[in-house]
Structures are given as C-alpha cells and as structure tokens.
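Supplementary Methods. Inverse-folding protocol.

Structures were first reduced to a discrete structure-token string of length 272. This string, shown here, constituted the complete conditioning input.
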C-alpha cells in the first residue's frame, strides 16, 4: 500500500483575525442604551430575565450589515461565505442568557446589547455548535454581574476580533489525496483545540470544503514552480498575482489558503 505523507503548515489558521472593529451604528447605540436600562431595572427588582426581555437590538438591518461588511461577508469562525439572509447570524461572543454547563449562571445579559460583544457568523457555527458554550480556563473567575471585571476571565474560545487565530490553530492535510483538511490546536493552553471543538471546526463538512480548494491551490503552486524552473518572469508574476488574490482576507477560507502557501515556502507572496 502506498504510504501517505502528511503536510502541515507552521503557522496556519482556520479562522482569521478581523480588522479593527467599526463604530456601532448610531441608531443601534440609542436602541441598545434604552434596552439595557430596562434590563438593569428588571434585574434590580429581582426578576429573572427571559428571552422576551432580550429585545433584539441587533436584528435591525444596520447591525448585521455593518458586521457583515467588517467580516468581508464571511463567518468569523469558519470563514465560509454564505447567503446573508438565510444563513447568517449576529453572534454574541459571550452568551446573553445562560452558559452551557453552568445552570446557575444567568448569562452575560448586560452584554446582550454591547457592540463589542457582537460578531458575524453563519448559523452553522452559531446555532449548531457555539450556542451558549463559553468555557473558561478557571471557572472560579467567571463573572456574573455588570460591574464585574471581564478581564479576569480567561476564555478558551478565541475571539478573532481581538486575537489572531493563527497563534492557536494549525492544519494538517494529506499531501497525496488532499481531500480533507483538518485543523488542530498548537498553543500550550489548549485554546486552539478547545475552539475547534466548540465550533466543530474539524467536522467533515468543513474539512471537505477546504479539501475541494486543493486543486486550485496546487495549480497555482505548479504554475509558480514552472515559472521558477524556466526563469520566466511573466509566469512567476502571474502566479504571484493569483496567490495574492486567493489569500486576500476578502476571500472565503483565506486563512487556510495562506496556510497552504506558507507550507509550500511561498509565504512572501501572501496577501497582507
Ligand atoms: Zn461559520
């Protein structure tokens, strides 16, 4: 039987770090402020919050539109591009009404209208996997009131708005078959592996979607090799431009594509 060779990139990612967060839409800020006052009043009166209390300040079009543009119309976690109407969500990084595995925790209700807690994701990642999962490295540091210091918490889940997923997650793929591209954690604190687990980033659907890109990526790589072998500047330049275009943060799975070209020793041509 033919042996299979495994390739992996040195510093790769499934997710990709986002650019600086844009300002919140003005109308949203007003809506959010008013709703938060109501939430705080109810809590101060000792009443339990329900889903009905968390009015959806984020479902007006200005919020998903701004977040979607910020994320280059991609899910912040899996990097797929999808039809925004049926398949996209405003994701609350810290869950708003409850934390999976910790039934006594009320959820981070005071962040339900907090712009800095919003991300843009696909329904697969948000509803099928992330949900209310938000594990911490030290559970005793979890906060449960608005006046607590969130900086005390050490979440396992990587926040692509403030952290670079490349520091935590890498990839493996089969060099001869190229069908499945599997992510794995690389950091000592296991945040990469935990993030993969929480979001189902190693499930077959995503591994196959990345594998399907291999033919194109291999073709570009071969073009570059041919240009280098022949010393043909025109071919090399064309391959460079293709690498740059493919690895732009605006393209789906750009994190994985960057990883691929790094692993082939073509790091210098990757888009910034
Ligand atoms: Zn997703």
């Amino acid at each position: 039987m033919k042996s299979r060779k495994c390739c992996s990139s040195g510093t790769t990612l499934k997710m990709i770090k986002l650019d600086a967060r844009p300002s919140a839409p003005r109308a949203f800020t007003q809506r959010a402020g008013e709703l938060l006052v109501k939430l705080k009043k109810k809590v101060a009166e000792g009443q339990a919050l329900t889903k009905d209390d968390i009015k959806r300040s984020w479902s007006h079009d200005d919020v998903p539109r701004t977040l979607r543009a910020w994320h280059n119309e991609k899910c912040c976690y899996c990097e797929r591009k999808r039809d925004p109407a049926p398949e996209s969500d405003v994701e609350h990084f810290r869950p708003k009404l409850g934390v999976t595995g910790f039934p006594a925790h009320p959820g981070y209700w005071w962040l339900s209208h907090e712009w800095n807690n919003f991300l843009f994701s696909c329904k697969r990642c948000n509803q099928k996997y992330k949900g209310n999962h938000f594990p911490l490295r030290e559970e005793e540091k979890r906060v449960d009131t608005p006046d607590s210091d969130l900086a005390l918490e050490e979440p396992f889940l990587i926040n692509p708005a403030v952290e670079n997923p490349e520091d935590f997650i890498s990839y493996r793929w089969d060099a001869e078959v190229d069908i499945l591209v599997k992510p794995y954690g690389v950091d000592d604190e296991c945040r990469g592996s935990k993030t993969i687990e929480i979001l189902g980033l190693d499930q077959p659907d995503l591994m196959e979607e990345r594998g399907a890109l291999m033919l194109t990526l291999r073709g570009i790589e071969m073009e570059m090799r041919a240009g280098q072998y022949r010393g043909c500047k025109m071919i090399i330049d064309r391959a460079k431009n293709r690498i740059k275009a493919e690895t732009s943060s605006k393209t789906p799975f750009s994190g994985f594509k960057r990883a691929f070209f790094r692993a082939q020793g073509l790091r210098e041509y990757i888009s910034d």
